[in-house]
Design brief:
The chain is of the alpha/beta class. Helix content is about 45%, strand content about 20%. A four-stranded parallel beta sheet has the order 3-2-4-5, with helices on both faces. Strands 1-6 form a two-stranded parallel sheet.
Amino acid sequence: MEITQLNILAIGRDPAILQVVERLINGHDNWLATVVTTDGQALAAFGQQRFPIVFVCAGVSTAEEDVLRKCLTAIDANVIVARHYGGGSGLLENEVRAILDHQGIYITTKK
């Protein structure tokens, strides 16, 4: 599948960490981050646009992640919900690229 923009949803409880995640994602051409701090905000955002990737970040418990994963995959069975533990731009980029490769998603530039 080819897309022109990769929308990534990140949910976490720490706004400062999410700010860094948002900056790292948006630092790539054709990647766009939406960051939220509550499950309700995540579900609302997910209902308004397609996110092939959802990163679960700091402060979200395993139990909360499991519930969120079930809700999101009920809406879109193809979504990849992955735990992001931090570690800088290289790790985040590698995580995203591995998911894209696994899902067969290719980002093309707008012409």
